[in-house]
Amino acid sequence: MNSVKEKRAGASNGGARTESAGTVRRRPVWLGMALIALATPLAGQTLGQRIESVREGWVTFRTEVKDGVEVCERGIRVRSEGEAIRTYGRRGSDASCSAGPLQVEVRVAEGRVREVEARPLRERAGATALGAVEPGSASRFLVELAYRDASEEAVEAGFFLAQLPRGIAPSGGILRAAGDRALPAGVRRSALFWAGQLAADRVVAELALEAPHPKTRRTAFFWLAQRDEPRVADFLAEVILGHRNGGAPPGKGPA
């Protein structure tokens, strides 16, 4: 009789049941639903939201890189087809290079990204480690720093590092930033510079049509990308997307 009363009391108390000794107590249904509700927003957060939620300190994540990319303690080496290795980062000899993964280290202050660095895999003391990140998510976060009130130094590093994750071509996002007049001039200049590098890597435009050597073409696109003009961004977009095979470069020929 007492056991029946206990079961009825449990049924009227949110679904909890009081069993005799030796049996497992069932958690209230509302408690399980609350736990699910708490976990769902975190699972739905973007990489940028997860990083900025730290508010203060360093956050790290790792991602796979393309073939030809070497991650070094003193910078990044990129080998392009038919060209010598290009080095980005601190100068000096560095024997500690590997083919990845790339570890991206982000310093956040007051919820704002202030610094972005890249290293071979290592443990950074005191950092929040997010672990492995899908290449597309990593590249997207790095490009979107331009729109996240990050420092200009962090944005510039992001544009470069966004090109390294395996299987990803971030040209669309970089070109968008290059042509967005709402962004600070320094951010646009950085986007134009890297858009120029992408254009040089993809195709020989009319500007460098007569240049037989890849290094000469790259130099031409480098100087073109220094011009903070909407027509330059449009021209680079046509080159990268393969829509321009002839015609005059910006500033030449009919307006």
Structure description:
It is a single chain. The protein has 255 residues and is of the alpha+beta class. It has nine helices and eight strands. The strands form two sheets. A four-stranded mixed beta sheet has the order 7-6-1-8. A four-stranded antiparallel beta sheet has the order 4-3-2-5, with no helix packed on it. Helix 7 packs antiparallel against helix 8 (214-224). The longest helix has 18 residues, at 185-202.
User: Which consecutive residue ranges, at least 5 long each, have pLDDT under 50?
Assistant: 1-24, 29-41, 245-255
> How would you classify the helix and strand content by structural class?
alpha+beta
Strand-and-helix sequence, N→C?
HHHEEEEEEEEHHHHHH
| Major sheet size, sense and barrel closure | 4 strands, mixed
Mean pLDDT reading:
75
- The number of helical elements comes to 9
Gross morphology: globular
Computed over alpha carbons, the radius of gyration is: 26 Å
Number of strands: 8
Helical content class = 25-40%
Q: What order do the strands of the largest sheet run in, or round the barrel if closed? A: 7-6-1-8
Strand content: 15-25%
Distance between the termini: 95 Å
Task: Please give the structural blueprint.
Layout: H1 2-11, H2 29-43, H3 47-52, E1 56-63, E2 69-72, E3 75-79, E4 85-89, E5 97-98, E6 102-109, E7 112-119, E8 128-132, H4 135-144, H5 152-161, H6 171-178, H7 185-202, H8 214-224, H9 230-241
Parallel strand pairs: 1-8
Antiparallel strand pairs: 1-6, 2-3, 2-5, 3-4, 6-7
Helix pairs in contact: 4-5, 5-7, 6-7, 6-9, 7-8, 7-9
